[in-house]
Amino acid sequence: MSADTVVSAAPAVAFLNAETARSSAETLLTILNDILGFSKAEEGEPNIEPLAFDLRTLCESTADLLQDAAQRKSLEIGYVLDPVIPPVLHGDPARLRQVLLNLLSNALKFTDEGGVLLQVDEVERTRETVLLQFRVTDTGIGLTATARESLFGRAGGTARGLTIAKQLVQLMEGEIGVESEEGCGSTFWFTARLGFRPADAGSDLAARGAADAPHVLVVEDSLASRHTIALQLAAWRVNCDTSDDGVSALAMMRARAVEGRPYDVVLADQKLPGIDGTTLVRLAVANRKDFGMSRFVLMTASPQQLDVATLSGLDVRMCLRKPVKPAFLYSAVFAPPAHVRPAPQGAAPRVLVADDNAVNRKLVLRQLQRLGFAADAAGSGIEVLEAMHRIPYDLVLMDCQMPEMDGYQTTAHLRLQEKNGGKRVPVIALTASDGERDRRTCLAVGMDDFLLKPVHEAELAGVLARWLPRP
């Protein structure tokens, strides 16, 4: 096991290249399938194939497909889902994705400043179906009245794709339309009726009561991103204020602290005009009496902006990659404060990395070494339990999918042992999926936090800062 602690840079580079290739291949395959689907629809052959799917994951992955196109134009894509929507629905996810891709890509095409927002709301519910409304809003050039009237009936260009989208929406027992004014952006909307099982009607990201909701300040200079986060927090009935720069944010924090009701959480973008996110945190933490005991979360479009030197000494609860996914935003806002356990005098906290993929293990071990943590590795759940019996690790990075005994089973065993007198060790899930059902399973078995694979060093540093003392 100790051999895995000797790491070269080559495997890490190979892993990242392989991950990029895999992601690109999946994106290309999705696009080819969509093109084929549109072709069939155009020939009058569209059909609906009912399957169970996670709506949040579908919306997130669809937006992810267009992130590169959005970043090339310095635009942001956001999405907000009504928290009452059942997490597992029954319908045709491929056809639904086709319509969303068409509307989102058109919105990006005709938008040069600002961003694009996807909103999904539940309109009505029967015993086994829900009628959802999808709205794609952009800050683009807008449409004239003449263009709006003929948009879904023309033969070529953008209208041709919209005509096919209309056919697919009708197959999903829905309607499609547009609201727009020239020079004021557009909102394309459609409805779709989807099935669900009553057993799947609950949601982890359900709305909280206003009485116990935290007070949150969102500091973000991008109007699209700020609006998206504020809408999502409002859906959870979170008390939310917003600011577009660090100076005004500090003034708002001071004003609430003087009133005796400081913000519970401050979400700050790292790249702010004037005072950036890390500077804002340093100033507020250095003057807690003036600004209150808020918990800080940093957001960044580029994890490289939050390197080890930048995060050193910061009292940051979590680092979130933009665009911020709702499940991670929920954890940042609602998760209880981490209880940091003191490390033995003069010793660096010791971390165990559990992953059956050797390249993944070596990549994370190398990152831990750079961060100053002592670390070992295990390739299965059985090895984790054996290692924990020999060495008192301070934290475990646990891959969810492993042979013999997966991460869920292993964590459940650890928690059972702790009930019988062992110390409680933080377990951080390493997962390739951030779907709501996956996160619900992680929490149910006793995991404490999440890291999305491939692991970025800045995000790893942020999670470790929450659960361990700095070495």
Task: Please supply descriptive tags for the structure shown above.
17 strands, 471 residues, 42% helix, alpha/beta, 5-stranded mixed β-sheet
Short description:
This protein is of the alpha/beta class and 471 residues long.
Structure description:
The protein has 471 residues and is α/β, with parallel strands linked by helices. It contains 17 helices and 17 strands. The chain has helices at 9-42, 55-65, 67-72, 93-109, 145-150, 157-171, 223-235, 246-258, 277-286, 288-291, 308-311, 326-334, 358-371, 381-390, 407-419, 436-445, 457-467; strands spanning 51-54, 76-81, 88-91, 115-125, 129-138, 176-180, 186-195, 215-219, 239-243, 265-269, 295-300, 316-321, 350-354, 374-378, 395-399, 427-431, 449-452. Strands 2-4-5-7-6 form a 5-stranded mixed β-sheet, sandwiched between helices. Helix 13 (358-371) links the parallel strand 13 (350-354) and strand 14. Helix 1 packs across helix 4. It is globular. Mean pLDDT is 80; it is low at 1-24, 203-211 and 338-345.
Helix- and strand-based class? alpha/beta
State which percent range the strand residues make up: 15-25%
End-to-end distance, in Å? 22 Å
- The gross shape turns out to be globular
Low-pLDDT ranges:
1-24, 203-211, 338-345
**Total helix count?**
17
The strand count comes to 17
The largest β sheet comes out as: 5 strands, mixed
Tell me the radius of gyration: 24 Å
Mean pLDDT: 80
Share in helix: 40-55%
Widest sheet: strand ordering: 2-4-5-7-6
Write the layout of secondary structure elements.
Elements: H1 9-42, E1 51-54, H2 55-65, H3 67-72, E2 76-81, E3 88-91, H4 93-109, E4 115-125, E5 129-138, H5 145-150, H6 157-171, E6 176-180, E7 186-195, E8 215-219, H7 223-235, E9 239-243, H8 246-258, E10 265-269, H9 277-286, H10 288-291, E11 295-300, H11 308-311, E12 316-321, H12 326-334, E13 350-354, H13 358-371, E14 374-378, H14 381-390, E15 395-399, H15 407-419, E16 427-431, H16 436-445, E17 449-452, H17 457-467
Parallel strand pairs: 2-4, 8-9, 8-10, 10-11, 11-12, 13-14, 13-15, 15-16, 16-17
Antiparallel strand pairs: 1-3, 4-5, 5-7, 6-7
Helix pairs in contact: 1-4, 1-13, 2-4, 4-6, 14-15
